[in-house]
Design brief:
By secondary structure, the chain is α+β, with helices and mostly antiparallel strands. It folds into four domains: 96 residues, no CATH class; 157 residues; 33 residues, no CATH class; 75 residues, no CATH class. The protein has a seven-stranded mixed beta sheet with strand order 3-4-5-6-7-8-9. A four-stranded antiparallel beta sheet has the order 10-12-11-13. A three-stranded antiparallel beta sheet has the order 28-31-32, with no helix packed on it. Strand 31 and strand 32 form a beta hairpin. Helix 1 runs antiparallel to helix 2 and helix 1 packs antiparallel against helix 4. It is flat, with a radius of gyration of 38 Å. The N and C termini lie far apart (100 Å).
């Protein structure tokens, strides 16, 4: 029997895809040019055998070049741009790779058991999912039952696909949902399941046996895996076997739809109720044990270490957003600082502040005691720059007649820098328990923020 050449395998996949996507009439307009290019280029597997690449002849030169399959199809066969879309070209490249590198061979499907399953989830083999990456430890159910669960893995170059393979109570096998980063891998794994006579889950989320649909009742009757060792916190989110029961021996029975427990939690726990801290992964039995922050559940320990509650809006925020309003004794988040200013001297957020126009500075009450208003020009200056006549350095020739200026009365100067003279009207406590003031402070007005009657 004559072995099919790599060129003929590629031609077949190109023909099938072009007819499926563009129709027979369109294919007839391009096939002569494609066949002519293929005869000249003679594409095939490169000598180094690296998957995902094709070797081909350079026009009018003796040597051969190597190029990624998708790029070869688009550039050398001129299938890109106005003929096949990038998505279809990627699909076609996968089909060609399958044909050239023999992915239908069972040697390309590997089966992992035990701790190797957890490693595959940690490394996101196939693609990411809710149990992959940092949550890989939650698939412990599979690792604890190596005679009932395997992870089927197929790879092609940098691409990979994975699917959970369960041994059912009736002795047959069920291949669950396929996670993949190349459509061609998903098709190849499905074809493999068909050849093995396994039950498998279609991409349309239904269950099939040798491509014949199972009724809902049949799926519930057949898809059972019983007497499983389990540990709460290590029970993964299940795609198809979504129901469970704890049997009389304390072991876990799972099925398609016959249990009292829903196995659709990403927490790893199956006990009724409870919450898992998204920071430390500890589990807690009730809502009183956790706080909720932007859709995340955090335990009390993590809350007091990493979060705070904004005194303005009442929302729980990360400590990175914490702003202390010093003169009010409160903490607010970044979104709630608009009503507060920043003191140019101490950088604290404050409610009451004073703008000194000649210095172009805004200061809080505490820092304001470090400044005095000049009796002559009425500008502000540091206390150490004010002389014994209560004048600033810019006013050496003050006119004595200015002492009688009744339009600009001088507030009494404190004898001690720590003393602050202020005329405070009645303190008013708002609903939030904050104090607001009216009156004067070191000679400048303090806004009266009392709410109107």
């Amino acid at each position: 029997m004559t072995k099919t050449s790599d060129k003929d395998k590629i031609c077949l996949q190109v023909k099938k895809t072009c007819i499926r996507e563009k129709g027979v009439q369109s294919w007839n307009t391009v096939r002569r040019q494609i066949y002519s290019d293929m005869s000249i280029l003679q594409p095939g597997m490169p000598k180094d055998g690296i998957p995902g690449y094709l070797a081909y002849n350079i026009r009018n030169k003796p040597q051969r070049m190597k190029m990624r399959t998708g790029k070869f199809l688009g550039k050398q066969l001129r299938l890109n741009h106005n003929y096949l879309s990038p998505a279809i070209l990627e699909y076609l490249a996968g089909k060609v790779n399958m044909a050239i590198f023999g992915m239908e061979d069972s040697d390309n499907m590997t089966f992992l058991v035990g701790g190797a399953i957890e490693d595959a989830y940690e490394n996101c083999v196939g693609s990411g999912s809710c149990m992959a990456g940092s949550d890989h430890h939650k698939v412990g159910l599979y690792c604890m039952n190596p005679t009932r669960f395997q992870l089927a893995v197929m790879k092609l170059g940098m691409n990979s696909g994975r699917a959970l393979l369960s041994k059912l109570d009736n002795g047959s096998f069920f291949m669950d949902r396929i996670y993949y980063d190349s459509v061609s891998l998903q098709e190849a794994m499905t074809d493999y399941a068909v050849k093995q006579g396994w039950y498998y889950r279609n991409s349309d989320s239904s269950c099939s046996l040798n491509r014949h649909q199972l009724s809902r009742k049949d799926a519930c009757d057949i898809l059972h895996v019983s007497d499983l060792e389990w540990e709460d916190g290590r029970v993964p989110y299940m795609d198809t076997l979504v129901s469970g029961n704890i049997n009389n021996q304390g072991k876990l029975d799972i099925s398609a739809n016959n249990g009292d427990i829903e196995l659709c939690s990403c927490s790893g726990y199956i006990e009724a109720g409870g919450y898992t801290c998204d920071d430390c992964d500890d589990h807690y039995p009730d809502e009183d044990s956790v706080f909720f922050c932007a859709g995340r559940a955090v335990c009390r320990s993590c809350y007091y270490e990493n979060y705070f509650t904004c005194d303005y809006c009442g929302n729980i925020r990360d400590n990175n957003e914490l702003n202390e309003i010093v003169d009010m004794g409160i903490s607010v988040c970044d979104n709630c600082t608009a009503d507060y200013g920043v003191c140019d001297d101490c950088d604290d957020h404050v409610l009451d502040r004073h703008y000194m126009e000649n210095l172009d500075q805004t200061v809080c009450r505490v820092c304001a005691v470090e400044y005095t208003q000049c009796d002559n020009c009425r500008n502000w200056a540091k206390n150490e720059d004010i002389d014994e006549n209560n004048e600033c350095p810019e006013c050496p020739d003050r006119d004595p007649d200015d002492d009688n200026d009744e339009d600009d009365p001088e507030p009494p100067k404190p004898t001690d820098g720590a003393e602050v003279e202020k005329e405070v009207e009645k303190e008013v406590e708002t609903d939030a328990g904050w104090l607001f003031y009216g009156g004067k402070f070191r000679g400048f007005p303090i806004p009266d923020r009392r709410r109107p009657e």
